[in-house]
Amino acid sequence: MQSLKVGLVSSSQLSFPGDKKSVYEASAQKLRALSGQLGFELYVHPGTVITPDDGYAAVKALEGEGVDFILLQCTSFSAGALAPIFARARAALGLWAIPEHADRGVLPFNSFCTINMYSGIIGHYLKDYNIPIKWFFGDVEDPLFRGRLAVTVRALRAIKNLKASKVALIGGIAPGFDDLYDDERTLIRRFDGIRINRLHEYSEVRDRAVAYSAAQVAAEMERIAAEAGGVLNRRADETLETNARFSLAYDDFIKEYGYDAIAVSCWPKFQDEFQYSVCAVVGGLNDKGIPTACEGDLTSAISMLLLKYLSDDVGMLMDMGAFDRADDTVLMWHCGPAASRFCRQNGYQLSVNYHGMAHEEGAKEPNCCGVTRDMVFDPGEVTIARISGEADELLVANGSFLGDTKPSFYGSRGWLGGLSLNGTPIGALDLVNTLLVRRFSHHFPIVRGDYSKELLEAMGWLGMKKIEPVPYADYLQAPNW
């Protein structure tokens, strides 16, 4: 993962008597130490910026250093003409005010007034540019400053990496799953630099899968069986060889093309040709750190990649299968493609999926095929995030899995409680109503931990909108597109 490079620069004016040079040097020294803790590179621009010519020279130097984020410390009151110069630089901009460290007598710096003025200039004088900025206040050791900077570093680092990523759709969108169709041009425009290939065919992976030797397949079968905690349904064993072949095929395919995330069309070609479900392979790819979305959901694959870059952790893609008004929970469920990261306490078993064929009347078990991962998710907090609309909206929800405390259906699943939307608590009925009224697509990328602050900040830098809550009502509610 690429690191974020921060450029620190000072602005000031000669008329304020505070020791601006010493303050800036001390700030730079402390920020260097903090950069190691927060995981960013730091370039410190020498001297101070006073005149517009100084400002243009500083921006040229910062851009020459390849900084991603300019942290402009307004060490003392500074000329208003500097604000547009830094605001229109290629890098994101933060405005930093320092404390006066005095409460009477001569005003030493008048620093806060400067970021107030600069914010106003950027918001009013440059209003047509829609330039996002973030303010900071305090000394480097101040928790207010550190907390705000930590969120910014994680958000901007994730955006930087997402824009440098390669993503593929293999086999198209699963037939009938038309709510997953998105124009990739909107994604490319929003995440300028991302490379998307949606032209790969299922046959490219299938042809690899059938070509492996018996010895190669046997070793992969042994690995897959060893990682699972047993077999829940015998039909999983019947297709374990096919599963091993496609596991090898996807590994080699991704290695050859260098993709960072993929979307797999899991229906119906695998079922038609092999009477087989690729769910367990999807889970295995997520285990290996390759965000993989099923049903050809390219937008969820990119959303999963965003979560990976924020969390440096493994994710999964779920449906919402049920909700319970009694305890304000929702059931996150899918056929069986979840990563083992989510079931470390009790592991998973290999099982089966519905394969789209009619169930036989009087049969003792459903008409099904392997291979899936049957698991109940460990308890703990998670974040849900998915790009939506014309790649101009982002769902940000949180909750905590309850563990194996409520009945649930076979598959990869977990009941989720303690729900919130955009960082604000929400009941299950209001959440469900919001998703349905807003016509939200039926997939939910999930990662462990709470990254709502980082996601909400990323939305600000990217010019995206929240999915606003729609409280439940008995009457028909319009989506307000």
From TrEMBL:
InterPro entries found in the cross-reference section: Fucose_isomerase_N/cen_sf
GO BP terms: monosaccharide metabolic process
Keyword set, alphabetical order: Carbohydrate metabolism, Isomerase
Coiled-coil regions listed: none
GO cellular component: cytoplasm
Molecular functions (GO terms): intramolecular oxidoreductase activity, interconverting aldoses and ketoses
Protein name, per record: Fucose isomerase
